[in-house]
Write a structure and sequence with these properties.
By secondary structure, the chain is an all-alpha fold. The chain contains 9 helices and 2 strands, in the order E-E-H-H-H-H-H-H-H-H-H. Strand 1 and strand 2 form a beta hairpin. Helix 1 (about 25-40) runs antiparallel to helix 2 (about 45-60), helix 2 (about 45-60) packs across helix 7 (about 170-185) and helix 7 packs across helix 8.
């Protein structure tokens, strides 16, 4: 199996899974630490929000933004078995379309962070469309309400990323449940054991980063161009 390489954004990448142990190998931790700095300082996520998403990302791709489900060489449009990138967008069409619109490549963390930010602010019929479904009475919300306090739900992805906290009755398990139920909606979204598994990973990162200041990232990147031909996302984000 090929050794992971540093891409031009200085994130480790590979077509293949990073070596074990998942989440704590040198490649995963390198990427997780870089992402943490950007999500906190550039995109202004809370630490609990970062860690809850990290619980999902660890098991989706082990922080390998280049990974395509099944270790395929490239994502396949329209495929339900071609999850791609940090959160394994499935099918990958929205990610590929987003990357194409902004003149970037799907395989870079900069593109995928910009995609997460676009989804965070998206409306139902936006491009990319919103992905957070916490509608009261909906199947995902009903499953959450069976186990947790309805009052701890974040109704939108922006509310979650901006405000997720452990001081309002939420726990890492309930926050991880919201990411799984309302955002990733994986094939086992309804299984509480998956939320607990993700929370164990989230706790690792919460302990790793609590009490620390994230590394100062470059200035906030400008708004991406609205049409092809402008700067690429990776050109707008200057990495150390």
């Amino acid at each position: 199996m090929a050794t992971p390489y540093l891409d031009k954004e200085e994130f480790y990448a590979s077509q293949y899974y990073f070596p074990e142990p998942r989440g704590t190998n040198e490649y995963s931790l390198h990427n997780a630490d870089k992402l943490w700095g950007y999500l906190i300082n550039t995109y202004h996520w809370t630490l609990p929000a970062v860690c809850a998403f990290y619980g999902a990302i660890q098991y989706e791709c082990d922080f390998n933004q280049r990974l395509v489900e099944g270790q395929k060489p490239a994502p396949i449009r329209g495929s339900s078995t071609s999850g791609t990138g940090l959160v394994q967008w499935t099918p990958p069409d929205n990610l590929l379309g987003f990357a194409n619109t902004y003149g970037s490549s799907w395989e870079y963390a900069g593109t995928q962070m910009a995609m997460l930010e676009a989804e965070r602010k998206a409306k139902y019929n936006s491009k990319p469309p919103r992905q957070w479904y916490a509608t009261k009475g909906g199947q995902y919300r009903n499953k959450y309400d069976e186990y947790f306090d309805d009052n701890t739900v974040y109704e939108t992805q922006d509310e979650f990323c901006s405000n997720a906290s452990l001081d309002n009755g939420n726990t890492l398990v309930s926050l991880c449940a919201q990411v799984v139920l309302f955002y990733t909606r994986s094939g086992t979204w309804y299984d509480p054991k998956r939320w607990e598994r993700n929370a164990n990973a989230a706790e690792f990162y919460y302990k790793r980063y609590s009490g620390q200041e994230p590394p100062t990232p470059p200035p906030i990147p400008p708004t991406p161009p609205s049409k092809k031909g402008g700067l690429k996302v990776w050109q707008m984000i200057r990495y150390h």
